[in-house]
TrEMBL record:
Residues 1-190 form the PiggyBac transposable element-derived protein domain. This is PiggyBac transposable element-derived protein domain-containing protein.
């Protein structure tokens, strides 16, 4: 698709609502992302209604980087970041849920990452141990439309935790993930010194 065609389609999309003035108490980052949030929500709702996944779902995160100055997009207030490294501090991170058998993205959660916003407002330290960390909460949101489907959900360490395994089971899903030893509720007494045979 050419850039001109993309621009024509983009300017015709009006799914997102952003008030003309930033609401009192809302951060400028949240205000800017209002232009994107409704768009992602509508895509996810449509896919939840129309897409029936296979038996294996994969959760992962990916970075979206914008290069250059952005021109009219920046003037319109659309979030813009210029980054160059592989795992940048600036950019947009999207958590995806993909049907492994069909390679169809079935859900997405977008999250703004700004170098200046080092304090994460969704702080895992303030969450009860049985509620799971941020990765677990995002995973639950991504898989919400397919609860009790019996699908297998595999993840990397961003999403994987003991809480994720427990909550996926409660949600009627199977779970495989690389859980780090430093995770809450990791059974150190059983697995702390375990070594895999060669």
């Amino acid at each position: 698709m050419s850039r001109n065609r993309f621009d024509n389609i983009w300017y015709a999309i009006r799914w997102s609502h952003q008030p003309p003035e930033q609401p009192h108490g809302m951060s400028s980052e949240q205000y800017r992302w209002m232009l994107v949030d409704d768009f992602v929500d509508n895509i996810n709702e449509y896919r939840a209604r129309t897409f029936v996944p296979g038996g294996h779902l994969e959760a992962d995160e990916s970075m979206i980087c914008w290069y250059g100055v952005g021109g009219s997009f920046v003037e319109a207030g659309i979030p813009h970041y210029a980054v160059s490294e592989r795992k940048p501090n600036n950019g947009a991170e999207i958590q995806n849920l993909t049907d492994v058998n069909r390679i169809v993205k079935s859900a997405a959660e977008e999250e703004a990452i700004a170098a200046t916003a080092t304090a994460d407002k969704d702080n895992d330290k303030d969450v009860a141990a049985n509620e799971g960390g941020k990765g677990t909460r995002v995973l639950l949101e991504l898989t919400r439309p397919w609860r009790d489907s019996g699908c297998l959900v595999t993840t990397d360490a961003y999403f994987a935790s003991v809480e994720a395994a427990v909550m996926m089971k409660e949600a009627g899903l199977f779970f495989i993930g690389n859980v780090k030893q430093c995770s809450r509720r990791f059974p150190m007494e059983v697995l702390g010194n375990a070594t895999l045979p060669k």
